[in-house]
Amino acid sequence: MAEEMRIVLRNYGKIDPLNIDEYIAAGGYGALNKARGMSPMDLIGEVKASNLRGRGGAGFNCGMKWNFACQAPADQKYVICNADEGEPGTYKDRLIMEGDPQSLLEGMAICAYAIGATQGYIYCRGEYPSVVKTLNAAIAQAKEKGVLGDFSIEVRMGAGAYVCGEETALIESIEGKRGEPRIKPPFPPVIGLWYKPTIVNNVETFANIPAIVEKGAAWYAGIGTPTYPGTKIVTLTGDVVNKTFFEVTTDTTIQEVIFGFGGGISGGKAFKAVQIGGTSGAFIPAAHLDTPIGFDAMSSIGASLGSGAVFVLDESRDIVDVTARIARFFAHESCGKCAPCREGTMRMHDLMDKINAGQGQTADIALLNKLGRVMSYSCLCGLGQAAPAPVLTAIEHFSADYDAKLA
Amino acid sequence: MINVTIDGIKASVPDGSTILQAAKDVGISIPSLCYHPDQSVKANCRVCVCEVEGNRLLQAACSQPVYEGMVIKTRTPKVIEARKTILELILSHHPQDCLNCIRNENCELQSLAAEYFVRSNPFELKVRGLPKDLSTPSLFRDPDKCVLCRRCIEACTVVQTVNALGLEGRGSHAMVVPSLGLDLIDSPCIMCGQCIHACPVGAIGEVEDIDKLLAAIADPETIVVTQIAPAVRLALSEEIGMDTGALPMEVFVAGLKQIGFDHVLHTNFTADLTILEEGNELLKRLTSGGTLPMFTSCSPGWINFCETFYPDLLDNLSTCKSPQQMFGSLVKTYWADKMGIAPKNIFSVSIMPCVAKKYEAARPEMTASGYRDVDIVLTTREIGRLFRMSGLDFTKLPPQPFSPWMGEYTGAAVIFGATGGVMEAALRTVYEVVMEETLEDVNFTIARGFEGIKEAAVDLKGTVVKVAIAHGLSHARKLMDQVRAGESPYHFIEIMACPGGCVGGGGQPITKANFKRIERLDAIYIEDEAMPIRKSHENAEVKKIYEDFLHEPLGHKSHELLHTHYHAKHKRFL
Amino acid sequence: MNYQEILAQYADKPGGMIEAFHAIQEKLNYLPQEVIIEAARVFDKPVAQAFGVATFYSMFSTQPRGKYVIRICESAPCHVAGAAEVVAALEQELGISMGESTADGLFTLEFTECVGQCQATPVITINGAPYLDVTPARVAGIIMACK
User: Fold this and answer.
1) Is the peptide bond prior to A189 cis by the omega test (within 30 degrees of 0)?
2) Which residues contact B520 (CB under 8 A, 6 or more apart)?
3) How far apart are CA A213 and CA A275, in angstroms?
4) CB atoms < 10 A from the CB of C13, how many?
5) Residues pairing with A157 in the sheet
6) How distant is the Cα of B161 from the closest Cα of chain A, in angstroms?
7) Which end of chain C is more exposed for a tag (fewer CB within 10 A), N or C?
């Protein structure tokens, strides 16, 4: 069976997260020192060459993003860590922040040096009050040690809005506004927080940075699948024996994740479906279990790696019921700014509830397909574009389950 | 320039163009709902989505800038399905009572539904059933009809800096609401009605008083008398299918007589009167150390704004009532007496480009005649409806004259309808009063135009009088903050609440874009130019009322009937 | 500390209204009208905008709530783990429905989306603190411990 490979969780469980000395003793802040010995362009080149792609879900090349912000002229720039981990079934960022907060701060400080920023924010979801305390303690220690230099980091707390995981909505929220996505372009590396160039990266992305700087781009680029190298933390939920987390290389297959690391389906039942990437992910049937979890491999089967959440359903599960529940999630979390998402998520929820209650018609399924299709390419932001995925893929792969529930 | 291909047409368009603008350049109109030519891009309705080669996602034409070599397709099956589905989604959450709606036949959503032949809707009709807000005498809100385009919010917050409107909640529960979710009357709303122009549908509209008029006309005992405000005629032309300004005044009078008005008089008469009262008030303040700068007081939205946001500056407001209210108190005193009509039998109607006038007429202090001075206020749009109902052909209607005593007016009164007009009219009179010589060129062009703040200095016998003009309350706010800080260099400031002045008033034909306001401004100056008399103090009927009744500007009678006082509005919800 | 003092502490924080609302809610469990009006003043924003912020985020409430705000996760992993049964048990134990507060002002029941403790579903939180692997049988004990 495949082994875990811990890069972002390298210190997890090994050091006292609230003791910066233990982090430093484990090699911490060596990468920041090394980075500061490089020119920002060389540093960005290294990150680019590592082919590290954003771990928040969109999978954009991290070094390229930094380069945009670096090139943008401005008197002030910002580094923001997206810790608004809202994808149901996901808690990997919490693990990093609880277990090794300094690695995140170090990653942010390296980014700040690369783009020329002196102010950073960690936007942590409001559901993690204890994590906020840990982060504040870690920042205080780093400040006391002087390891961050002139780079300051402030923690801001979300207040229960999944959409704030979208980077421009997150920026609006830090600005004290309703967390509604902005129109793009312009993108945050050019115009971001308070209209200044801003890098928004996920917790897991930042936590990779010190390791990449320390061990080099070539080392990292050689791990896992070449187009999306490195590791990914996966969090297993649902009907799986080991409801826990693993950090695995990106060439690991879904099969290995569920049946190797996950120990298979709980209760001795058979596998039915898995939803990967969080609640906006596609449902994947058994036929695709041999797909590696890497970004592009997942895309090729119409799925996405997303946040790395792995939600497993056994043969006894009613996928229509689960999907109806997911549709309600999006109706609840739509910000309401753009019409297709505001109205579409509400309709999708209504139609799913109708079918789940045994009152659906064949026409309702056709309507769901049309609605989902239109939403997926018409909505203003990723929330509305991704919201139909579970519904559409459940219909595609488990149409018999739907048919069985029609009136 | 940037080279793009739109629906197979190659074009070179200016840098920074959006797809929407580029398509317009090549003659392709892309449908939109939240787009407003004078506002920031919102891109929230997504009706304008287009296909861009190499992109899986459709792009909103209103927000997406073009780039070199971009290949755009504006009406592929994918695009049409998306637009139609989005329209179906919006329509299925919207009351289907177009027939009863105030915006029937003048609704952007209705037009889109027609253009995209939405015949049946696959989504179940689901109307929220929210209560209408009928708390003000000026405007109502019908939140069920709101399509969340947010144009009203921008009109209220950016154009007017009133901030009465905002959002509540999120997702499909999101709503546009007055501050704190209160009724409009408890919000900072100043009732200017600019949100009505911004609204693409019937979610905000004027409170209609047509039925009250028809009841008065039907009562044989009641003498229905009306006044017409300066900016109404030229815009009314638009409501009855004519070019701006094309309806001749006397034909307008004839139309009102046909509807059943007994006497048609003119607010312009009291506009001229206002100049004499306000001009003399200014001279008095200048010479006797009164509070300066003096602010004009004809715009009721502006009065509400000053009472709400600048209660510390109420002494700067001219005590002159607006021309509407001067007319109201005179029609039931002076005019009733001249005509031998019992004031109690007079039903005083004013026809206004304004919805705030409805609130102004209902103010408790506006009863100087011993009765409610102005019984009802009808907007230009309401008169347009009455005219359409009347079946009149205005190209064939013979003209009719105004009734006597309060129907004469000058070019100075005409320009009251334009931003800068009150200032220009005042200068024409003040100049001659102070200089005791004839003003040869009456055109103070410096006071004209659509610029937000205009300023001028006039030398009156060695005293340089500095004046400023603002329209749209965001501009007014800048001048007010200056006054509040004690840094205002001006002696006299004209403020009109609405962009363009009354030509862009909240009661005018639905005016989506400022270019329409500018067109109306032009029409006003053409009318002024054509007037035989262009100075208020040369109005013969005005001279007559001073001889017979008022005796002198700022005199005892004037004080009683033509001047007023203001009250700070103590609102916590600014 | 009264709400004015709490708000004043955040006055210099750019965009700090959301942080201030959190701090107020920790004391009052909801955001009364006066707080929204005062926050608008402190952060120099229109009241209409502050109200828009207060009503956007699901953790903020403009209605009074109980001393203990119990939130039940109903996202898919908790859903399949039996969140509905936990909801039923809580409603029965407290004699109120979801979205309501008990008459004694002690408890409020609310739904929440995922709280990120998915290794131990179903999950509830009480004033932000997570309770893991909650079963209907455990509900009475958890409520009792609050009292």
Assistant:
1) no
2) B231, B234, B235, B244, B245, B417, B500, B503, B504, B508
3) 33
4) 15
5) A124
6) 18
7) C
Domains defined for chain B, CATH in brackets = 2-91 (3.10.20.740), 128-206 (3.30.70.20), 211-561 (3.40.950.10)
* Exposure on the CB side of residue A270, measured as CA atoms within 13 A: 4
CB atoms within 10 A of CB B364: 7
B contacts of A346 (beta carbons < 8 Å): 93, 171-172
Per-residue DSSP letter, B286: H
The pair of three-digit structure tokens given for residue A393, joined into one six-digit string: 């893929």
User: What is the Cα–Cα distance from B560 to B554, expressed in whole angstroms?
Assistant: 10
Q: What is the C-alpha separation between B427 and A13, in angstroms, rounded? A: 83
Residue with tokens 């030398």: B459
- Which of A227, A281, A229, A235 shows the shortest CA–CA distance to A250? A229
Q: Does A233 touch chain C (CB under 8 A)?
A: no
Pairing status of strand B70-73 against strand B139-141: unpaired
In one letter, which amino acid is B249? Answer: M
A229: preceding bond cis by omega (within 30 degrees)? no
CA distance C110 to C125: 10
Distance CA B319, CA B308 (A): 17
Is A248 within 8 Å of A295 (Cβ atoms)?
no
Residue B456 to chain C, least CA–CA distance (Å)? 33
In sequence order, the 6+-apart residues with CB closer than 8 A to the CB of B193 are: B138, B139, B206, B301, B354, B355, B356, B498, B505, B506, B507
pTM: 0.95
For chain C, what is the mean pLDDT? 95
* C:55-74 residues touching chain B, CB 8 A cutoff: 55-56
The first and second tokens of residue A256, run together, are 């290995």
ipTM reported for the complex, 2 dp: 0.96
Count of Cβ atoms closer than 10 Å to residue A330 Cβ: 28
Q: Indicate if the alpha-carbon torsion angle C120, C125, C131, C133 is positive or negative.
A: negative
Element (H, E) at A295: helix A295-300
Check CB contact of A347 with chain B, cutoff 8 Å: yes
Residues 6 or more apart in contact with residue B111 via CB below 8 angstroms: none
Inter-chain CB proximity B166 and C56 less than 8 Å: no
Task: Mutate one of C74, C115, C121 to test the A interface: name it (highest A CB count within 10 A).
Answer: C115
- 3-class DSSP state of B113: helix
* B298 catalytic per annotation: yes
To the nearest 5 percent, what fractions of chain C are helix, strand and coil?
A: 45, 15, 40
The answer to whether residues B125 and B90 touch, using CB atoms and an 8 Å cutoff, is: no
Residue A340 has pLDDT above 80, yes or no: yes
In chain C, what are the domains?
Answer: 3-54 (no CATH), 68-146 (3.40.30.10)
Q: What is the pLDDT of residue B442?
A: 87
Confidence at residue A175, expressed as pLDDT on a 0 to 100 scale: 98
Chain segment B156-198, per-residue pLDDT in tens:
999 999 999 999 999 999 999 999 999 999 999 999 999 999 9
Q: Is B77 exposed, middle or buried (0-12, 13-18, 19+ CB in 10 A)?
A: exposed
Q: Where do the domains of chain A lie, and which CATH numbers do they carry?
A: 20-221 (3.40.50.11540), 225-314 (3.10.20.600), 319-405 (1.20.1440.230)
Q: pLDDT tens digits for B446-487?
A: 899 999 999 999 888 888 999 999 999 999 999 999 999 999
Q: Which amino acid is at C49?
A: Q
Show the CA angle centred on residue B302, arms to residues B298 and B307, nearest 5°.
115
**Cα angle: A54, vertex A59, A62; to 5 degrees:** 40
Q: Are strands B70-73 and B2-6 parallel, antiparallel or unpaired?
A: parallel
User: Dihedrals φ, ψ of B214, to 5°?
Assistant: -60, -35
Q: State whether residue C64 is helix, strand or coil.
A: coil
